TrEMBL record:
Database matches in PROSITE patterns: UBC_2
UBC core domain ranges (all copies): 1-61
Matches recorded under Pfam families: UQ_con (PF00179)
Annotated SUPFAM superfamilies: UBC-like (SSF54495)
Listed InterPro entries: UBC, UBQ-conjugating_enzyme/RWD
Protein name: UBC core domain-containing protein
Source species, domain of life: Eukaryota
Biological source species: Nymphaea colorata
Length: 61
């Protein structure tokens, strides 16, 4: 119905904590695309946090 809004699905990478999951999102193209960038929004809630208290800013343990 709306050519400026696209839905997508991404499969979780093999051998990762996301394996087996299907993650849905939406791409919203502005009316003046390609002169303005699209907006991406993930619709699937992911309960994974990339933050690990055992790592500092240089990724050393």
């Amino acid at each position: 119905e709306n050519i400026f809004e696209w839905q997508f699905a991404i499969r979780g990478p093999q051998d990762s904590e996301f394996e087996g999951g299907i993650y849905h999102g939406r791409i919203q193209l502005p009316a003046d695309y390609p002169f303005q960038p699209p907006a991406f929004m993930m619709l699937t809630v992911i309960s994974y946090s990339a933050y690990n208290a055992n790592f500092h800013s240089l990724a050393a343990i």
